[in-house]
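Colleagues,

For the teaching module next term, I've prepared a clean inverse folding example: a structure given as tokens, and then the sequence designed for it. I'd like students to try predicting residues themselves before seeing the answer, so please don't circulate the second half yet.
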């Protein structure tokens, strides 16, 4: 079995990914490739799944870095574990090596992402593993970061260490889909989430929307928010729904709440500015409503003026801030414009078994300008499951129709 899916072999100059080489990188990290035969033993799989469990402890807190977990095994026993807690702090491998101490010599380390091979905020893990004398490295997926991109695997192999790549690769990729998207497309992964009735409405004709879905679906949304870096809404949602956009779990990560508003014609007493327990950012255009800007600043809300406020400009700005994932929880008009501009890659639709009717009751996605069914955007990799009394449908826009 060829077990060397090294990105660097796919293209020599990956510092800037282009449309031409992106698909090579995607297949090297385990995306868009046909199902592969299982790599590694059942024990290897169990250890890799433990790495992912550890990695998840830092959900929402590591951007722009990935979620990574590591486990060191000696004579069939776990002797060290670790995960990457946040950017700037040591990598998962370092924590696992510290926990294992001398027992790392001759041991096998499992790590959900290829060990790094560069000096970033922290030194290269490849060298740390070589110095610690590990005998074998089992990798979940290749790191798409052009500074690593197979170099970590190559360095370990050059030092005589056995390296196995691709154990539970799909699960590893799933956990870091936002990090991979950020690296490849230089934008955060955009996730459009909405809740609608069986007849496709997000509110009644009079605008009442509390609540479309069950309590179980709403707590799933809180978990989803905690795993994202930011949640975006438009001014209309603030005016009509007055949301909190919090995670409502004490220990959970609190994503940045972002409001897009060109003119800042927003309510002075919105819940968003009155709940200081989560950070809030208002994106607007140059010179908009200075008095309101002052009021927001006094309430601890950050205001940033962009030259023109569009979904893509907002995503470009959030990319520069180091974000990997952005949850669009906006109304239909902004959702349509975000989709049209390629700011949404993934859709999460909660569907409640209710019918409210109303020909002008709002729908989750406004006008996309389509006139025929052949123009419909068909989602790929679609999955669905029941959450409480609702159904959650999840899927991705096809890349060519919707990539930056
Ligand atoms: N293998 C691995 N384990 C971790 O725990 C990590 N955080 C990474 N991250 C990779 O290294 C880059 C960040 O490096 P610095 O934290 O700035 O030193 C990140 O972009 C990943 O490529 N890898
Ligand atoms: Zn590292």
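(Answer key — instructors only)
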């Amino acid at each position: 079995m060829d077990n060397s899916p090294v990105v660097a072999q796919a293209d020599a100059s990956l510092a800037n990914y282009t449309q031409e080489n992106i698909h090579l990188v995607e297949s090297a990290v385990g995306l868009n490739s046909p199902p592969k035969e299982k790599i590694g033993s059942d024990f290897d799989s169990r250890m890799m799944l433990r790495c992912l469990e550890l990695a998840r402890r830092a959900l929402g807190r590591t951007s722009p870095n990935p979620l990574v977990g590591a486990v060191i095994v000696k004579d069939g026993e776990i002797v060290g574990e670790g995960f990457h807690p946040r950017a700037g702090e040591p990598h998962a491998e370092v924590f696992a090596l510290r926990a294992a101490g001398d027992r790392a010599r001759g041991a096998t380390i499992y790590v959900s992402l290829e060990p790094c091979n560069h000096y970033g905020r922290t030194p290269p893990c490849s060298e740390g593993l070589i110095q610690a004398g590990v005998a074998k490295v089992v990798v979940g997926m290749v790191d798409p970061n052009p500074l690593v991109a197979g170099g970590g695997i190559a360095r370990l192999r050059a030092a005589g260490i056995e390296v196995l790549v691709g154990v539970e690769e799909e699960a590893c990729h799933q956990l870091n889909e936002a990090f991979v998207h950020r690296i490849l497309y230089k934008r955060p992964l955009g996730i459009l989430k909405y809740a609608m009735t069986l007849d496709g409405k997000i509110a009644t004709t009079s605008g009442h929307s509390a609540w479309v879905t069950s309590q179980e679906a709403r707590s799933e949304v809180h978990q989803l928010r905690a795993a994202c870096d930011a949640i975006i809404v438009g001014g209309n949602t603030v005016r009509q729904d007055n949301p909190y956009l919090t995670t409502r779990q004490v220990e959970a990560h609190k994503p940045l709440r972002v409001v897009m508003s060109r003119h800042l014609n927003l309510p002075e007493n919105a819940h968003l500015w009155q709940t200081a327990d989560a950070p809030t950012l208002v994106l607007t255009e140059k010179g908009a409503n200075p008095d309101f800007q002052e009021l927001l600043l006094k309430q601890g809300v950050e205001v940033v003026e962009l030259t023109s406020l569009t979904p893509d400009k907002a995503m470009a700005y959030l990319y520069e801030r180091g974000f990997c994932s952005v949850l669009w929880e906006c109304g239909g008009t902004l959702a349509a414009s975000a989709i049209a501009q390629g700011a949404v890659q993934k859709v999460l639709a909660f569907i409640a078994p209710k019918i409210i009717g109303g020909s002008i009751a709002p729908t989750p996605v406004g006008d996309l300008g389509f006139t025929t069914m052949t123009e419909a955007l068909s989602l790929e990799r679609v999955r669905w499951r029941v959450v409480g009394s609702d159904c959650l449908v999840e899927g991705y826009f096809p890349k060519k129709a919707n990539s930056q």
